[in-house]
Design brief:
Helix content is 46%, strand content 3%. By secondary structure, it is mainly alpha-helical.
């Protein structure tokens, strides 16, 4: 084989190799893009899951929309069974008297626990209204206390179901606890607070989430039993509360 023939053969071999390499390159690219897309999808799912978990926490409400939520978040963050303060800064001898603290503590004890979203189930109409009020500054600070009827109005359910529902306070048989069940639970007390002797009260008349709970019976009965950390109606009137 002449030198000229050898050079031509080598040139053709190189050209063939280059051509094969160019043809193979797109194929490698096609194999990589599903992996990239898969990684992006996984990252988005993880980010979405993380956002949803944060969405369930009090810090979300506090950080995103609800400027007046600072004191509510602070009461929620306090340890259970210790001295603390309520949403207005009043001293509370035992934080266990505030439902926001005890409901959070239940998860630390192996229970289901509770966050803001566990009790305050937002409806789309409420979220839109609250979002508009936040953007325009049309809100009061500190927030006014609301009754259970106010809190369930958008959901269209009876006020009792805010607390007495199968997911929160059940009868042990898969159903919601009733007022009769409550009466039975406190039947051993000298003066049963759940017996509606003077008309039915809302749960929130006594049980407070972000301030010390109040024994409403003490309004008339000086000998009414005041649980640890709770306060009497007389002491409630001494609290520094917004008008």
């Amino acid at each position: 084989m002449s030198e000229e023939t050898k050079v031509e053969a080598a040139t053709e071999a190189t050209a063939s190799t280059d051509s094969a390499t160019k043809e193979a390159a797109p194929k490698k690219g096609k194999k990589k893009w599903p992996i990239v897309v898969g990684i992006v999808v996984v990252v988005l799912i993880a980010a979405g899951a993380g956002f949803w978990v944060w969405h369930e926490q009090p810090s979300f409400c506090n950080a995103i929309c609800h400027t007046p939520m600072d004191p509510y978040n602070q009461t929620y963050d306090q340890a259970d069974n210790t001295a603390g303060v309520d949403k207005w800064g009043n001293e509370v001898s035992n934080t266990h008297s505030m439902l926001a603290v005890t409901h959070k503590a239940s998860v630390e004890d192996g229970g289901a626990g509770a966050t803001c979203m566990s009790c305050h189930v937002p409806q789309l109409s409420e979220q839109i209204s609250e979002g508009m009020n936040w953007v325009t500054g049309n809100y009061v600070n500190p927030l006014e206390e609301r009754s259970l009827e106010d809190l369930v109005e958008a959901r269209g359910i009876p006020a009792d179901e805010f607390c007495l529902n199968a997911a929160c306070h059940s009868n042990g048989e898969g159903g919601a606890m009733t007022r009769d069940d409550l009466i039975a639970l406190t039947a051993d007390m000298e003066r049963n607070p759940h017996v509606a002797q003077h008309g039915a009260n809302e749960c929130s008349d006594c049980h407070k989430a972000h301030r010390a709970s109040v024994n409403e019976c003490s309004q008339c009965h000086n000998d009414a039993d005041i649980p640890e950390g709770w306060i009497s109606v007389a002491d409630e009137k001494k609290l520094n509360m917004p008008a």
